[in-house]
Specification:
104 residues, alpha+beta, 3 helices, four-stranded mixed β-sheet
């Protein structure tokens, strides 16, 4: 069950969804974040944020605007760290003042 547990810097904070479902949900809502949306061995939990569009954008909004063709494959791309891929997906720690891993 998806529910809003708080409001943060990126809008509503949702829980109850993971992985591809979290990506699709945030793209539909156009705001918010899902903490610990997925886990990658050797890296840990990764938060998904909707973010913002534009050249200085970040998050899923930025990825959707510039690389919409990879949206269906994001979870697989993040999981396959040792396999060559056509795109670089940034997972940042300490993005802005926040000390956590986020898909940017």
């Amino acid at each position: 069950m998806i529910k809003i547990v708080n409001t943060g810097e990126f809008g509503p904070i949702y829980e109850g969804i993971l992985g591809k479902e979290a990506i699709d949900f945030l793209l539909e809502k156009r705001s918010g974040e899902v903490p610990k949306a997925m886990n990658r061995d050797g890296l840990g939990y990764i938060d998904f944020i909707y973010g913002k569009k534009g050249e200085q954008g970040y998050g899923l909004a930025h990825i959707e605007e510039y690389h919409s063709e990879i949206i269906p494959y994001l979870v697989v791309i993040i999981q396959k760290r040792n396999q060559p891929i056509s795109f670089t997906i940034w997972v940042a720690y300490d993005f802005q003042p926040l000390k956590r891993l986020m898909l940017i």
